[in-house]
Automatic annotation (TrEMBL):
The keyword Signal applies. Belongs to the UPF0065 (bug) family. It comes from Teichococcus coralli. Pfam families: TctC. SUPFAM superfamilies: Periplasmic binding protein-like II. Coiled coil: none annotated. Residues 1-24 form the signal peptide. This is Tripartite tricarboxylate transporter substrate binding protein. Keywords: Signal. InterPro entries: BUG, Bug_dom1.
Amino acid sequence: MLRRQLLMAGGALAAMPLAGTARAQETYPNRPIQMVVAFPPGGQADVTARPVAAALEKLLHQPVPVVNRAGAGGIVGSASVARAEPDGYTALLALSSLAVLPEAERIQGRTPAYTVDQFAPIARITADPTLLVVPASAPWQNVAELVADAKKRPGAISYGSAGNYSTLHVAMAMFTNAADLDLLHVPFQGGGPALTALLSGTVNAMASGPGPVLPHLREGRLRALACWGSERIADFEGVPTFIELGYPEVEFYIWTGLFLPAATPAPIQARLRDALREACQSEALRRTLATAGSPVAYQDGEAFDRFFAADSERLIRAVRRIGRLD
């Protein structure tokens, strides 16, 4: 009888963590969910994260603070989420550079701070063709004039990016490789600081998602010369694609997506995915993001998995062409 009682007690104790986990999943979320952006304020990830977080707060009835954890072109913030407790309370609002940065670390001879398989993809939120922008005071009215000037003055024309191997760097590298140009790359800690440098005249050009640069284009402070999409952007009908201009391999999109640590229980992933899907269907969020120049391009499940895999493969090839940076 004693043996039977001990076995029963042991079984009850063994079941307690499982019961606790089940209850935690059933009540998720019951405290704030931290949304990490691995870049400073003002860039594409930040511009998307803030209205998305506000929409999720209303649906989940919990605060969703946006935390900018910048450093190493996005590595610091991304790695912090990869190592976070997989309980659904730390999420990453990532850019397409998520898959690029570990490969860049390998190229540089370093051990990656994280790997893509440490994340569970929840959903894609936006997918914007990138714009090539220059100050309105710049002498180039089109890409042909920029290319001609760059050929005459190798290394004299600079462009800013969100850091080495960042989305903005990879996009520009695609163009400079295709046009055989020698431009000076100036890496910053994120798209926001790079844009500030462009507006102040510290750098001469940059690639950007539409959201951060749209207000400055409307105010006439910046000029868009081309876009990296397969077709022209609806709000920028006068801006040609690089493909139109004779660069068929120059195509790039800055997309944003939400990720959780890979070991996060499936029911918690599903709860957050359902809330994000509902948020992205709301007219309020769609209007906010469209006004910011980044319309919703929601995608989840197998469709997002396929997109993420194909896009990552294409970007990793581009990073390998960039090679080691000393």
